Description:
Blueprint: H1 34-37, H2 73-85, H3 107-113, H4 116-119, H5 131-148, E1 152-154, H6 160-177, E2 185-189, H7 195-202, E3 206-210, H8 220-226, E4 231-237, H9 249-258, E5 262-266, E6 286-288, H10 291-294, E7 309-311, E8 323-327, E9 330-334, H11 352-388, E10 405-407, H12 419-428, E11 435-436, E12 446-448, H13 456-474, H14 479-482, H15 495-500, H16 509-516
Parallel strand pairs: 2-3, 2-4, 4-5, 5-6
Antiparallel strand pairs: 1-7, 6-7, 8-9, 10-12, 11-12
The structure holds pyridoxal-5'-phosphate (PLP).
Amino acid sequence: MSMNNQGRPTGTGSIGSGFTSTSGSALLPNEPLLFEIGDTEHSGVDLPDVEISTSRLGGFERKMPLDLAGLTEPEAMRHYVRLSRLNHSIDSGMYPLGSCTMKHNPRLNEKMARLPGFSDIHPLQPVSTVQGALEMMNQLSHWLMTLTNTAAVALTPKAGAHGELLGMMAIKAAQDAAGQSHRRIVLVPESAHGTNPATAAFLGYSVKPIPARDDGTVDVQAVKNALSPDVAAIMLTNPNTCGLFEPQVIEIAEAVHAAGAFFYCDGANFNAIMGVVRPGDLGIDAMHINLHKTFSTPHGGGGPGAGPVVLSAALAPFAPVPFVRKGSNGLDLVEHAEGGALGRITAFQGQMGMYVRALTYMLSHGGDGLAQAAQDAVLNANYIKARLQHVFSVPFGDYPTMHEALFDDSFLAGTGVTTLDFAKALIDEGFHPMTMYFPLVVHGAMLIEPTESESKQTLDHFCDVMEELALDAKAGNKERFTSAPLKAPRRRLDETRAARSPILKWERPDEALKAAE
Ligand SMILES: *Cc1c(COP(=O)(O)O)cnc(C)c1O
């Protein structure tokens, strides 16, 4: 079998286990690289020869060929369409990836985001010409503050993790302003998303872990014991990553405030409680909301995201610029705030397209519709838990779950099948795997988030497949799992090597040879 420099099979020839001469499968061919389709010696487009008498590049002319693959338009088009067909997406099937909230993205959102008044404006346009866009941002802010009962919101952070950074920067600015700079410790429960301790550490805080109780919730007494005049804040996820609502969240907030610290809430799971619980009523000081999760924007593979942060009255003066404010001639974009401790944390105004999608989702659902969506998400997760708990092992079985169903790997004990093997087998059945090995407090965790957008029929199909797989694993059919996926375009990848030494650049075969020598 011939291999290219990236170690992938290419072209025709004898292919070990394949049945086709292209090693492709029916209408899903084994997709070559652009450079293997069109060579770099030819161009796929006709450009007129240009007479250049004198260069104006001042000696910076390219000396080497550009090495672009010469493809015609249909070749380029087909390449990307074929690649897209190798990918799994929420538009092609259920995507039960816990914590990531892969819900359906209503097409209405897309239609609104493409309105020329939103999509064709420029961030440097005079404010008088973008009043509609500012009004849209204003309305989104209003919805976010109303849903959370908070005093202010910073729209600009471009992801949940970026929002966490901003929220903790606001807390730091408030404490510096109050002469409390000695507060250098941040409490982070063990069940936290990895971004929480990373954020605190990035800002120079030392992270003090808080153990989880046997029931998966935060140990309130451990929080109280850890509080001291050196503690700046607690970063708590609610609902937490075990899919549980923290029952003593108000007691935790009160203890944190009594110690002079702030309560940062990771609100990435807001989709489970929107319209039902207002986090401001629970005593939070800052919380990011992942618009791409809760209010549906196509996301995954690193973007796009938007993580607005709502702030309590105590932190509102430390919000970053820019923000929208009513002025004498309509809406103003405030770019230099009085105080303005933080300045700006993004270029321009943030993810406008996502603001439009989120507001569209809010307006099309209405307040009652959002509450219904949250309740349906919770219902769907509990349905999965109820249907599967006779075969799967449930770590915190005594409680109804929130929007995620959490299983551990004890049902696989003695089968030789791991959580990873099980997830890979799910790929062969046409599902994206659930979240694996997270939260860390549960051994061999499998975290399933169906979201509200799946029908009962889809949930039943998923549960039937999960059940069949679990019974097959228990019946000793280990091979099916350890060799999975058999039907995916790629089998098991060397994930460590892919992460540590990725090949991100195509090299001319002769250069690659030279490099290898
Ligand atoms: C997704 C998530 C984050 C991070 O959000 P990004 O937008 O991916 O940066 C943080 N915390 C929790 C609980 C999450 O689920």
